[in-house]
Design goal:
- The structure is a single chain.
- By secondary structure, the protein is of the alpha+beta class.
- It has two domains: 32 residues; 98 residues.
- Helices cover 44% and strands 20% of the residues.
- It has a three-stranded antiparallel sheet, with no helix packed on it. Strands 5-4-6 form a three-stranded mixed sheet.
- A hairpin with a 5-residue loop joins strand 1 and strand 2.
- It is elongated.
- InterPro entries: ATP-cone_dom, NrdR-like_N, RNR_NrdR-like.
Length: 148
């Protein structure tokens, strides 16, 4: 590893440990040439998740976009930002466990709906109305009957 200060190619590792979240290895390094210390992190390279949209287009999974959509459904409800974060994390974790890098948007919507249904029925109905493209009152009635 090159020294970040003097570009010396021969640095020494003086300490190695797991990062706080366990997702990386943290290494403290020392440069014998300039006598400075610095930290490096080693992480697993994750493959990007591609979302297959309804029209067949593919776009990169965007955690922030998912969070915004869930927050929109949860406006003026009792759902906390911590709960929204938990849903986003759970959905992302389930997507990574799928064993593929291409996921249909329908699966993501179903996962979000599953979690929102447990947390808040109003947020669930709002999300479902957009995700499932409710076009009239009968669509709402059908979904409400399922909830009851």
């Amino acid at each position: 590893m090159y020294c970040i200060f003097c570009k010396n190619p021969d640095t020494e590792v003086i300490e190695t440990r797991l990062s706080e979240d366990g997702g990386a290895i943290r290494r403290r390094r020392h440069c014998p040439k300039c006598v400075k210390r610095f930290t490096t992190y080693e992480r697993v390279e994750e493959l990007p998740i591609l979302v297959i949209k309804r029209d067949g287009r593919r776009e990169r999974f965007d955690r922030e976009k998912l969070r915004r959509g869930i927050f929109k459904s949860c406006e003026k409800t009792k759902v906390t930002s911590d709960q929204v974060e938990r849903v986003v994390s759970e959905v992302e974790a389930e997507l990574k466990q799928q064993g593929t890098t291409e996921i249909e948007s329908r699966l993501i919507g179903n996962l979000v709906a599953k979690y929102l249904k447990k947390i808040d029925k109003i947020a669930y109905i709002r999300f479902a109305s957009v995700f499932r493209r409710f076009v009239d009152v009968e669509d709402f009635e059908k979904e409400l009957k399922k909830l009851l």
